Each structure stands twice: as C-alpha cells, then as structure tokens.
Amino acid sequence: MVFSVAIDGPAGAGKSTAAKQLSAMFDAIYLDTGAMYRTVALAAIKRGIDTQDGIALEKMIETIDIDVRFTGNGQEIYLDGENVNGQIRTPEVSLGASHVAVFPPIRHKMVEQQRKIAAKNNVVMDGRDIGTYVLKDAKYKFFLVASVEIRAQRRYKELYGKSTEADLESIIKDIEFRDENDSSRKMSPLKQAEDAILIDTTNISIQEMVDEIAGYINDA
Ligand code: DC
Q: What is the mean pLDDT of the chain?
C-alpha cells in the first residue's frame, strides 16, 4: 500500500523545503505540482500565447508533453523532451503559472498526471489543492502559512541565490497578487482542507517545521 502526504499553502510558506526533507525521511518521492503549472506557462510564453487566454491554452495543452522524472537529485521536469528545471523559476513564469492555473482544462490535465503518480508511489506532494482536491483521501494533510513579509524574504533569498534580478518590493507584490488570484479562482482554489493540520512557519526554523510535521506522520 502506498501513502500520500499533502502539503498545501501559499508561495513561500515552506512547502517545498518541508516536502523535500520529509520525502527523504519517509522514503517517498517528492512531487512539486507548482512546477507543472509553471511548465504550462513556460510553454505558452515560448509560443507567444497569452497566459490569460484560456481558449488558446486549451488547444495548446493537447499539443505539449510534460514529463516529470524523479532522480537522485529530486524532481526534473521536461517540456517536449527538454529539461526546463532552470527556466521555470523566473518571476515571469511565476505570474504566468498563477494565470494558467485558473483554467479547468489545464487543471484537469495536471491533476490526472498527479493522481497517476500518487497511485503508484509513496509521495509527498505540494501545491495549492492537494488536500482539497487532488488527493482528498491523503493520509496526512498539512496547510502551511506564514506572513507575507517573511515569505517574500525567503523568495528573495531563493532568487538571489540563483542570481535572478529581483527586489523585495516587487516580490511582495507578486506574492500578494498570486495569493489573491490562487485563492479566488473557481476551480480548486488555494484553501485549507477541513482535515488538514495548520502550521504557521513565520517564527519557526526549518528544522522545527520539519520536526513538527514529521511528528504527525507515524506509521508511514
Ligand atoms: O508552488 P508554485 O509557486 O511553484 O506554484 C506556481 C503557481 O501554480 C501558483 O501561483 C498557483 C499554481 N498552482 C496551482 O494552482 N495548483 C497547484 N497544485 C500548484 C500550483
């Protein structure tokens, strides 16, 4: 029997850091579902398609191949055979991902792939709708939150480390826009599942966050 851990929450709340460490601790794969929506946005940008044009995106989604592979180094994502791990981490793609994620045909396609992966593997999956929609029956569900300031600082460090041009002010704006856009869409908005455990990571260290979550996962 495989098991699933669902980790949801807004950008910068600590989901990917937690999910990476937990997957290693509990012998599961880590699926970053945000990377999938980012890859759809990247495909649109590469083709000159507006990331808010649902009709064009619906056609496009039938013509592209998104492949997620799990290696010793974690997840690698391929768009039509090309590794796009690096290309999907720009501010332009972040915004585009939030745009494309509004459209049900895009979500259906991504969710189908996500559920297939969870059916075959122990998985720690992070995103916005994992506990409420993708893996409603997940054995363990967590919803991570943190203040917008601390989330922006974390994202800034991440981008800075990768030498992308960024400033804190614009990151705060980007995060606030995405929080609102991701929470207000009709299909599976960002929302805490009723049976998810809420963890506020604003004032705790990474280690404390991981320990707290791991403490709930007892028989995986
Ligand atoms: O987690 P992230 O920042 O890489 O996600 C990028 C965008 O993708 C996010 O703003 C909303 C969307 N997303 C989603 O709608 N559902 C998911 N399960 C994961 C991400």
A: 94
pLDDT at 121: 95
Q: What's the CATH code of the domain at 181?
A: 3.40.50.300
How many domains is the chain built from?
1
> How far apart are the CA of 174 and the centre of ligand 1, in A?
13
The answer to whether the Cα torsion of 92, 190, 115, 151 is positive or negative is: positive
Protein residue closest via CA to atom 16 of ligand 1:
128
What span, in angstroms and rounded, lies between the C-alpha atoms of 176 and 123?
29
* Residue located nearest, by CA, to atom 4 of ligand 1: 34
pLDDT band at 158; cut points 50, 70, 90: confident
